[in-house]
Structures are given as structure tokens and as C-alpha cells.
Amino acid sequence: MKSVQKEDGIQINKYISNSGFCSRREAEKLIEQARVTINDEMVLLTARVFPGDVVAIDGEKIKNKQKPIYIALNKPVGVTSTTDETDKSNIIRFMNHPKRIFPVGRLDKDSEGLILLTNDGDIVNKILRAGNNNEKEYVVSVDKELTPEMIRQMGSGVKILGERTKPCYIRQEAPRKFRIILKQGLNRQIRRMCAEFGYKVKDLKRIRIMHIQLGNLAVGKWRYLTPAEVEQLDRLLEKAYN
Predict the structure, then answer these.
(1) Which of 18, 39, 62 is the last residue of a domain?
(2) pLDDT band at 4 (very low <50, low <70, confident <90, very high)
(3) Which helix H or strand E contains 137, and what residues bound it?
(4) Which domain holds residue 32?
(5) What is the pLDDT of residue 8?
(6) Catalytic-labelled residue, pool 108, 122, 143, 203
(7) What is the pLDDT of residue 240?
């Protein structure tokens, strides 16, 4: 059996939030007011909850309604990032996970690569609200050879959907392939940007969301995020709102 490591526990404020008792910020106030205990001992904000621990507020035991699930999937082309059951290609049917989960954001049906799924609504809301600050990295192949001018102009911003895209990092990696990092997510943004220069996207793969890497995860396969990845995700999102 794997031994319990320090990072395996869940931070006390997040545990209370996940239980549905109150928000994470409200939980922090309760902790500061010395109203929260773990195994009958008063705790600080840095405390962590481990399996078997008893958490109480004003002496009343609370239960964590569900264990948070964080998944990284290498979505194949043809799978739609929606929970709509009328769409037979929806990502939930493809995953067939025993727990109720939902995708964080979207990735086009005709694109492949990294997409996150979770049952943690708190994380979803924060990621989506901070969408224009979160980096997403893609590798893109097009139907004809790239030009230095096209790469330069795409990096400077392109007018699509009635607005100009934000300046972004872009680097050519092969005659018909480039890498691009975006901090916004307009509808089919990369495909529309390429179309403005007369290029058609042949393959589009998302390889990173914030600090979470696709790595060597095979197409159609998924993995749980590591405790370290979840901790860093929490820190980055908390920083975005402080």
C-alpha cells in the first residue's frame, strides 16, 4: 500500500469548500475565528485533512460530499467537449467515468490534445473567469509553407470576429508547422487567424494548459492530475484573485 505523503492531504479551507458547507474564503474566516477543528484540535489555515480525519465547525462534524477529481485527457478528433447528451460524440460518453465530471472550457471537435475534466465547480469557475490570463499552448500544421511575414503578423494580432486578437508568442518549427501560446480563447481562434492569411489548418493539438503538460499521454487516454499539479493550480488561481 502506498504510504500517505504530506501532499496527499487536502488543505482545510478547500476541504470545507468541497463539503458544500461554505465558500473557501468563508472557510478561511471560520478558521481564523478558531471555530474549526481536526480531530478535536484547533487548526491554522495551513492544516491539511487526511483520510480518517474528523473535521468539525463549532463542534459539529462535517462530511466532504465528494472527493475532488481532476483529469487530463488527450482528446481525439471527433469528440465534442460538451456534456449535452443529445450529442452522441460528447466527451462524457467518451470518458465513461463512473463519477459525474465535466470539461473545463472547450477544445474544437476537429482538434485534439489536452483538456481538463473535473467535478470541482470552484476550480472550473476560476479557470473560466481567469481565461484571458491562462496560457494555452498549441502545435499547428497547415496546408502550405509558412512565411516569416505570416508568423510576424499572427504574433502581433489578427482581426477576427470583429476584434483584434491579443499579441501572442508564435514560433515556426517546420515549413508547415508552428507553435503558438494564447491567453485568450475566441471561437476557433487559431483556425480563423490562419484563414485570414489564406492557410487551412490540417492538424491542431493543444499540448499545455497553464502548467499542466500533455506530455506523452496517448490520444484517447487520460490520467489524474498529480497532487503537485493540483496544488500549483490552486496557487495560480488564488493568485489571480488576490
Answers:
(1) 62
(2) very low
(3) strand 136-142
(4) 8-62
(5) 65
(6) 108
(7) 62
